[in-house]
Amino acid sequence: MDNPPPLTTPVESDTFMLLKDNGSLEVPHALMPKMxxxxxxxxxxxxxxxxxxxxxxxxxxxxxxxxxxxxxxxxNENGAVGGVVTGDFGWAKDGQQKDNFSxxxxxxxxxxxxxxxxRGSLTERLKKQFKLDKDAIST
Length: 139
Prior knowledge:
Largest sheet: 3 strands, antiparallel
Shape: extended
Number of domains: 2
Oligomer: single chain
C-alpha cells in the first residue's frame, strides 16, 4: 500500500474488568472471548484515521465537504435522496444578516452519504421519511 493508515501504536496489553459497586474483578485472559482480545491490533487516533480516510476518498475522486453542515435534504422526482442544501453562512446573533451573508448551496449528487451520526438532524429526517427505524428494537 502506497499510503498506509496511520497505525503507529501497537496494543501491548489489555485487561477485561468486571465492575462492581465496591470495586472490580479482573477476568483472566484465558476466559476472554477471542473477539475481545486486542493483541496484534493497533490503537489509533480517530481524528488521524478520518484525515487519512478523507485523503483516500479524495484520491478516488470523492468530494468530501468536511466542516460544512447540511441543512436540508434534496429529494429528486422519484423521492430518492438527490443531495443536500448547506446551511446559510453569516447570520448575526440577533438574527440579522451580516455583511458576509451567503445563502446555503444546493449540492446535487447521484450518491449522498450522511456522516453526521445516528442522531443527526438530517438523519432523523431521513429515518422519518423512509421509516428506517420501523423494525428497530428500542430500549
